[in-house]
Design goal:
Chain lengths: 254, 198
C-alpha cells in the first residue's frame, strides 16, 4: 500500500543549514549532507532543501551542495528557492536533484511550470503555494508571504495541475510558525479537487498535528513537511511513524 | 564494467550516483561496441514510451538490447520498454517480456479515486529472484509512475495501487524494476548490489 510521506525541510544559506539542530549527535550540525543522512537513517521518506541565500555566488555554492547531497543520500530530495527559469531548474536537476520546487516565479510566470514539466517531466515539478486568508478568501502570496498576488489558492492549484505540476506543496501563512496545527480544512479541499499529491506544510507543533493532517478524517494530505519540530527534536521520526501506524495511517518503517 | 545505456532518457545521475556509492565502475554511452564490452547493462529512464523507443531505434540500441546475453536491468520506464506494448502512445516496445503496460486510470475499480501518478513508497511482496537476496519481503520502494505492467510468470515482485501490478520482472538475463532502487534507501541499494553480482 502506498504510504504517507514524512518530509523534513532544511533551510540552506551559503551551503550550510540555518536553523539550529540540537538533538542529533552530528560532527557538523551545519552540514546539510550529514543532517540529511541522519534524517534518512531515522526514516524520513524524502527531503527538501530550500536555498534561502540571496546572492549569485551563493547560488553556485548551492548547486555544488546539491551534487554532494545526490552522491551521498539514497532517498528522493527536492530543492527550491529562487528558481525562476528553466535553466535554473536544469542546473539543479543535472546536479542530481530529483525534483525542483517553484513558488513566486511561477505565480509571476505560470508557463515556468509547463516549461519545466515538458522538458524534465511532471514528476520533478513541485509547485509551492504560500497563501493567507483575507476576508474569507485564500490569497496567494509571494516572496515568503510578504506580497499579495492576484491569485486565489484553489484556482491556482488547479491551474498549476493543468500546467503540469507533479505535486502541490501548500503552506498556510496563517498557520506557519504557530505550532498550532496545519490548515486541515484547506488540505482536505485541495485533496478533493486535485488529482496530484498534496504536501502539507506550516503549523506543525507536535506529532498529533501530523497525524491529523494525514488522516482520512483530517486533512487527507499525501505528505507532511515540517522543519523546526524535527530540527529541535520535539518530534522524532521513528516515534512519529509508530503513532501514524497506530492511527491506521500507512507508513514506511525502516 | 557496467554499461548505462544512454538514450537521453533523463535523470541518469541518480543511477550513476548509486553505482559510485557501491564502488562500481560504469560507462554511460549509446555506442553499441562499448556496451557490448560491458559485463552488465542498465537501462534507466524517465520520460515517454513512444519517444524513448524512437531514441532506442535511432541509435540501433533496440536490436542490441534484444540480442544481449549480459545481465540487463531496466528501471522505471526502462522496465516498461522491455515489455511487449505500452498504452502510452500505443507503443510497440522491445518485447523481451510478454507483459503489456497499461495506464492505472483504465484499470482502477470504479468509485476508487487514487492520485495518478503513484508517487511515493509502496511495499513489494512475492519476491522471487536473486535480485532480491537479503531484501525483506514487504520492503518499501520508491515509485513514480502512471503506467504499470500486468502480472504473469515473468513477475518477480508484486505491488498494489488500487490493483496488483508487477513491481519487478525477470526472465533469463533480463530484469526490470518499476520502482527506483537507486532512490529506495538501503533496501533499494541492496537490489543494485545484487544486480552487480549476477
Amino acid at each position: 500500500m502506498l504510504t504517507k510521506r514524512i518530509i523534513p525541510c532544511l533551510d540552506i544559506k551559503d551551503g550550510q543549514t540555518v536553523k539550529g539542530v540540537n538533538f542529533l549527535s552530528l560532527k557538523s550540525v551545519g552540514d546539510p549532507v550529514e543532517l540529511g543522512k541522519a534524517y534518512s537513517e531515522q526514516g524520513a521518506d524524502e527531503l527538501v532543501f530550500l536555498d534561502i541565500s540571496a546572492t549569485l555566488e551563493s547560488r553556485k555554492t548551492f548547486s555544488s551542495l546539491v551534487e554532494r547531497i545526490a552522491l551521498n543520500i539514497n532517498i528522493p530530495f527536492t530543492v527550491g528557492g529562487g528558481i525562476s527559469s528553466v535553466e535554473d531548474a536544469a542546473v539543479l536537476l543535472r546536479a542530481g536533484a530529483d525534483k525542483v520546487s517553484v513558488n513566486s516565479s511561477a505565480v509571476r510566470n505560470p508557463s515556468l511550470v509547463s516549461d519545466i514539466a515538458s522538458r524534465f517531466g511532471s514528476q520533478c515539478v513541485v509547485v509551492a503555494i504560500d497563501a493567507k486568508k483575507v476576508d474569507g478568501a485564500w490569497r496567494v502570496t509571494t516572496h515568503g508571504g510578504s506580497r499579495f498576488s492576484d491569485k486565489e489558492l484553489f484556482s491556482w492549484a488547479l491551474q498549476a495541475q493543468r500546467l503540469g505540476a507533479g505535486e502541490i506543496l501548500f503552506t498556510s501563512m496563517d498557520h506557519d510558525g504557530t505550532c498550532a496545527g496545519y490548515a486541515c480544512a484547506e488540505y482536505r479541499k485541495l485533496s478533493e479537487i486535485l488529482d496530484i499529491p498534496v504536501i502539507a506544510s506550516g503549523g506543525a507543533g507536535n506529532a498529533e498535528h501530523i497525524v491529523e493532517v494525514l488522516s482520512p478524517e483530517g486533512g487527507r494530505a499525501d505528505a507532511a513537511l515540517a522543519a523546526s519540530i524535527f530540527h529541535y527534536g520535539e518530534v522524532k521520526i521513528p516515534e512519529l511513524k509508530s503513532m501514524l501506524a497506530d492511527a491506521g495511517i500507512p507508513v514506511r518503517r525502516v | 564494467m557496467v554499461g548505462i545505456i544512454d538514450y537521453e532518457a533523463g535523470n541518469i545521475r541518480s543511477v550513476e550516483n548509486a553505482l559510485k556509492r557501491l564502488g562500481a565502475e560504469y560507462v554511460l554511452t549509446s555506442d553499441v561496441g562499448t556496451l557490448s564490452a560491458c559485463d552488465r547493462l542498465l537501462l534507466p529512464g524517465v520520460g515517454e514510451a513512444k519517444w524513448a523507443m524512437e531514441k532506442l531505434r535511432e541509435r540501433n540500441l533496440a536490436d542490441f538490447i534484444r540480442n544481449t546475453s549480459k545481465p540487463l536491468l531496466g528501471i522505471c520506464l526502462g522496465m516498461q520498454l522491455l515489455c511487449s506494448w505500452s498504452e502510452e502512445g500505443n507503443t510497440e516496445c522491445l518485447g523481451i517480456f510478454d507483459n503489456r503496460v497499461r495506464h492505472f486510470r483504465s484499470f482502477l475499480p470504479s468509485g476508487l479515486r487514487l492520485k495518478i501518478p503513484q508517487i511515493g513508497w509502496n511495499d513489494i511482496i512475492s519476491l522471487k529472484s536473486q535480485l532480491f537476496a537479503g531484501v525483506t519481503e514487504g520492503a518499501y520502494m520508491y515509485f513514480v509512475h502512471s503506467y504499470f505492467a500486468d502480472i504473469d510468470e515473468n513477475t518477480i515482485a508484486v505491488s498494489e495501487y488500487g490493483i496488483p501490478f508487477s513491481a519487478a520482472l525477470g526472465n533469463g538475463n533480463f530484469f526490470g524494476c518499476q520502482f527506483h532502487p537507486e532512490k529506495s534507501g538501503d533496501e533499494g541499494e541492496k537490489i543494485i548490489a545484487n544486480f552487480l553480482k549476477l
